[in-house]
Fold this protein.
Amino acid sequence: MQRTCANPWCNSSFEISSADLDLLEKVSPVIAGIRFDLPAPTLCPDCRQLRRLSYRNERRFYRRPCALTGKECVSLYSKDKPCIVFDQKAWWSDDWNQLATGRSFDPKKSFFAQFHELSLVAPRPCIVNMSSENSLYTNHSAYNKNCYMCINTGYSEDCFYTSDFALRNKNCADCLAIQKCERCYGCVDTKQASFSLFLHECINCTDCAFCYDCQSCKDCIGCWNLRQKQYCIHNEQLTQEAYEATKENLWPKTWDAIEEIDQSFRTLVKKKAIHRHVIMEHCEQTTGDHDFHCKDVRDSYYTCESEECAYCYDTGTVKSCIDANEPYQGELQYESHGCNLGYSLCVCSKCYECSNLLYSQYCWYCKDCFGCFGLRNKRYCILNNQCTKDEYEALVPMIIEHMRNTGDWGQFFPTNLSVFGYNETAAQDYAPITEKETATREWKWHSVPEDKPAVVKVIPAHDLPETIDNVSNEIINWAIECEATKKPFRIIKQELDFYRNMKLPIPRLHPDERHKRRMALRNPRKLWERECGKCGKKIASTYAPERPEIVYCEECYLAHVY
Ligand SMILES: [Zn+2]
Ligand SMILES: [Zn+2]
């Protein structure tokens, strides 16, 4: 069936297929043997995804006191946020009563209003970066050591500003979605690279810079679509001596050189490189982009080792999920965000190792709970109230019926109830809107001025020494004013050491701006119909038909690169 998105500012038409309806039936929760059918969605997949992401502040860090100990902590919640924030250690301790905020369901009020009231008084952890060492400023991350400003990063060491599924990296900075990389800078969607700069969609490359879609290459600069090559510049084979002589001038040492090479290389790639219509490896009956080892997955992006899913994003090893962002291991999730190891979850955000959970946030190791916030190891709770199994099984169907009547059943938590300003969340990364637009939609905007950095002086970025050789140790006591946004930012000692080691200049752009530019290299998470640039076959691609890149179907692409 064809539907129109219920968001008045969107109004786009979207399809709900019979496969979607089958999957919806499958993920509908079962309580005491009775299945509670989920209705077909009223919003388009994009709006559904953005609504989930409006609950995800990835990269805005603040300092605020822990509400239990008074100790200052690094937090995702600025001081003005009206919620109760505990330092991670305090939150995980038994020094407070998780059920003290429990309340009875009031049928005279909407469920979301009651959940929202609970969410403002139930303590939440300041940030999520479990099992990490010396990695205070990391979020949605775990098992890291000596990492700084890393988001969605795991099992990494000595990394700075890495994000979006950055796994098992060492000594990397300013990278997006890199895995098993070492000593890399400015790379995007790249695996197993080392000693390399500004790679995009590369695998297993060493000592390379500014390359696109290269694999198993060594000593290459400004190349595209190459396999197992060495000493190439702009796809031209040179001798070792000629390469080394040219490299000396081409390997960027100043920020101006980086910007110049970057710009001319991107233009060259747009004109000359062959772009694969979508990136997919070892998939069966799968649509989307950047999907690996998937089976029967529809309209999903950055999904790996998953089966029977639809509208999933940044997903690993899940089965039978629909409308899920960032789940890692799990099954039967519907409208979930950041729920790892979750089984049978319906509208949950940041619940870990939970099963049979509905409408809950920030729960760990819970089972059979409804409308709960910030609980650990609990079962049969409703709105943080402990029930017996019988009470739970009698009350939950009544609340669902109530939510059906109010139109809330099956809907994710509304954006206007998110404690974050829209501009603080990942939703703004994917669909940026203005403060005025957020106001029309009755959403929040975060405009509290950031604390001024406590520094000796602020220097404009263009006053920085051109190369790293002339940068003094004093720089860690200064703030740099971003060339593009004027926002001040700081360099920490480990970061300075990294730039020195890599012979890279100090960046002249604020980390947020650098992240934005890396994100801009990625395609939208959306498929268009277009024709293969070689054989004319109809293909689904994340490159819109009006884009200038040369886009090939899978067969023509493979014939070209191998
Ligand atoms: Zn929409
Ligand atoms: Zn073709």
About this structure: The longest helix spans residues 255-272. Residues 5, 7, 10, 12, 43-44, 46-47 surround zinc ion (ligand 1) (CB under 6 Å).
